[in-house]
Amino acid sequence: MLSAIAARRRGSGLGFAMPAILLLLAFFVVPVAALLTRSVTEPEPGLQNYVTLLGNSTYARIFFNTFFVSAVVTLITVLIAFPVAWALAIMPRRWAGVIFAIILLSMWTNLLARTYAWMVLLQQTGLINRSLMALGLIDAPLQLTNNLVGVTIGMVYIMLPFMILPLMGVIKKIDPAILQAAALCGATKAQALWRVLVPLAAPGIASGALMVFVMSLGYYVTPSLLGGTANMMLAELIAQQVQSLLNWGMGGAAAFVLLVVTLGLYAVQLRFFEPGEGR
Amino acid sequence: MTAPFLHINGIRKTYGNVVATDHVELAIAEGEFMTFLGPSGSGKSTTLYILAGFQDPTAGDIRLRGQSILQTPSHKRNIGMVFQRYTLFPHLSVGENVAFPLRVRRMGQDEVAAKVKRALSLVRLDGFEDRMPAKMSGGQQQRVALARALVYDPPVLLMDEPLSALDKKLREEIQFEIRRIHQETGVTILYVTHDQEEALRLSDRIAIFNQGKIEQVGTGPELYANPATHFVADFIGDSTFLAGQLAGVSGNRAGLRFADGTLVADVPLHGSGHAGQAAELMLRPERIELAPEPGAAGASLPVTVEDMTFLGNNTTVAARTSWGDALSVRLNFGHPLSGRIARGDSLYIRWSPEAAHAFVRG
């Protein structure tokens, strides 16, 4: 009987997935196709939207901002998340649980609330500037909001859990005896880190970095609140084109470029870190 | 007297109130194959980890060629180690795994290649350089681990139950390889195992660990023929213990009286005791003879046969003394009595006086 169920299950696997497939078709594939269509038909048929987008220096600036901030955010996130994930993996279970809960709680707290909190912290008269001045490290307040510095700080904070989680996954699977072996083989702590730990954690670093980079590319709330109008990123451009200017063609073209970049990066990751290869 | 090559000097390690090892004292000669044998939790692995530098002792010192190594961190101790679990670097090929200790020492490319080739040849894995560890059997992986631990010519090689994950046949094969490698390289080996057969097969000397202490150190035959404690007698080889009372102690020899009144006179006594104290007579099954009539007085006891098990080259007879102690006797295949005894038969066991040992009940 069990085998009959198994056989049926195998045959109707597609059936079970149908609701999800239909949902994706209706609310993802169709709108994307519609947007793509509008990007090459509005205001008139042709590729002029893409030509403008990729040729105009204002837009080039926005593309640069987007990719630069995303890359910096990804890099800083890796650098902060790696020691945190390592500490979580080796610390006693009870402590790891508490810290893990704090990370999750921060993730579950409302995004707007957290971004506004950063605005308060980072502003001219905010806690950070006042503390630095009180300590005598700076004479005048630093400009930390309404620029890409603020965007980067806010986004690193928001993206950290998405890097810590996959990193913890791979680091937990590394047998501590492998690092003991490396030490007895003569490897210093730095050598063990670069020659053993980092390569073994590479699949986790790659999937975390991809997740953070792609999420950063399309992030809207934090850049718009902490970045100000002068430092636009791609998601803000799309919102502006569609909401304020009702330029669906331009908005669609920008969205489509973002989608292509994302899929391209995903393909690269699949190519180099096939699922199940890392251990 | 010159300092021993490797001196484990009064090592004590405690975790809170738990004593893992207590005053472990051992001198190891250069080129010696020394095995730490004992049940799990007896402190043998703790001692090894202290040697490796993974743990610091609470008290005591470890000296290699007269120099303390406790202040030296693991990666500078220049000690080789093969672990219980497979610890090859999974992202590196076999060749790169073996090359790893040389690369972190920044050795030149040609020298690395030559040394890797020689080390792989030593463990009979010539030409496996490009293989990935995941594509190898457990036995092959441990051989690569052995090559990796020996490639930088360490003065001491530590092995922590390296064969416990392998099946019996493979284990014997690799034991043979380890012996050959020990002879070829002359490296000093400290080997941890809970398998007495493995210890006897490999070692020059064996240190028997029990409850954080070394009970006895000696060659296999020494430990078997002359166990210092009940624990050693029980752990090395099969043994039979018959309960009695000390009767007349003089120096390290004593008499022993059993419940049926039989007196066994003048056997070697281990541990100090006085007349009337509870003690045990230890006999090895192959030193006990089964016969229809009693032997010399003081080296013979009446027993009742309880069961027989045919095991090919011998038949093991389970018997019981009149006061209820169980014992076993081996009859070699073709022994005149085998096939002619039945359950419930009353027979006599006989033993040569020098084969018996008395242990005071601790």
Set down the secondary structure blueprint:
The complex is a heterodimer of chains A (279) and B (362).
Chain A: H1 2-11, H2 13-41, H3 48-55, H4 57-90, H5 93-108, H6 111-122, H7 127-134, H8 148-172, H9 176-184, H10 189-217, H11 221-227, H12 234-244, H13 248-272
Helix pairs in contact in A: 2-13, 4-5, 4-8, 4-10, 6-11, 8-10, 8-11, 9-10, 10-13, 12-13
Chain B: E1 6-15, E2 18-28, E3 33-37, H1 44-52, E4 59-64, E5 67-68, E6 80-82, H2 94-103, H3 109-122, H4 138-150, E7 156-160, H5 168-185, E8 188-193, H6 196-202, E9 205-210, E10 213-218, H7 220-225, H8 230-235, E11 240-250, E12 253-257, E13 263-270, E14 278-283, E15 288-291, E16 300-310, E17 314-321, E18 326-332, E19 346-351, E20 357-360
Full CATH superfamily name of chain A: MetI-like
Please report the first level of CATH classification, the CATH class of chain A: Mainly Alpha
Largest interface: A-B, 21 and 29 residues
Low-confidence runs of chain B: none
Number of domains of chain A: 1
From the alpha carbons, calculate the radius of gyration of chain A and give it in angstroms. 23 Å
Class by SSE composition of chain B = alpha+beta
What gap, in angstroms, lies between the N and C termini of chain B? 36 Å
- Radius of gyration based on Cα positions of chain B: 25 Å
Helix share, percent of chain A: over 70%
Q: What is the average of the pLDDT values of chain A?
A: 87
The CATH first-level class of the largest domain in chain B comes to: Alpha Beta
The second-level CATH architecture of the largest domain in chain B is 3-Layer(aba) Sandwich
How would the global form of chain A be characterised? globular
Account of the protein in words:
The complex is a heterodimer of chains A (279) and B (362). With 279 residues, chain A is mainly alpha-helical. Chain A has a single domain (47-272), classed as MetI-like fold. Helix content of chain A is 80%, strand content 0%. In chain A, helix 6 runs parallel beside helix 11 (221-227). Chain A starts with a helix and ends in a 7-residue tail after the last helix. The mean pLDDT of chain A is 87. Chain B is of the alpha+beta class and 362 residues long. Chain B has two domains: 6-231, 3-Layer(aba) Sandwich (Rossmann fold); 238-360, OB fold (Dihydrolipoamide Acetyltransferase, E2P) (Beta Barrel), CATH 2.40.50.140. Chain B has helices at residues 44-52, 94-103, 109-122, 138-150, 168-185, 196-202, 220-225, 230-235, and strands spanning 6-15, 18-28, 33-37, 59-64, 67-68, 80-82, 156-160, 188-193, 205-210, 213-218, 240-250, 253-257, 263-270, 278-283, 288-291, 300-310, 314-321, 326-332, 346-351, 357-360. In chain B, the strands form four sheets. Chain B has a six-stranded mixed β-sheet with strand order 6-7-8-3-9-10, with helices on both faces. In chain B, strands 11-12-13-20-14 form a five-stranded mixed beta barrel. In chain B, a hairpin with a 2-residue loop joins strand 1 and strand 2 (18-28). In chain B, helix 2 packs across helix 3, helix 2 packs parallel to helix 4 and helix 3 (109-122) crosses helix 4. The model of chain B has no long low-confidence stretch (mean pLDDT 91). Chain A binds chain B through residues 175, 177-178, 180-189, 191-192, 195-196, 199-200, 202, 279, and chain B through 52-54, 73-81, 83-85, 87, 89-91, 100-101, 103-105, 134, 145, 148-149, 152.
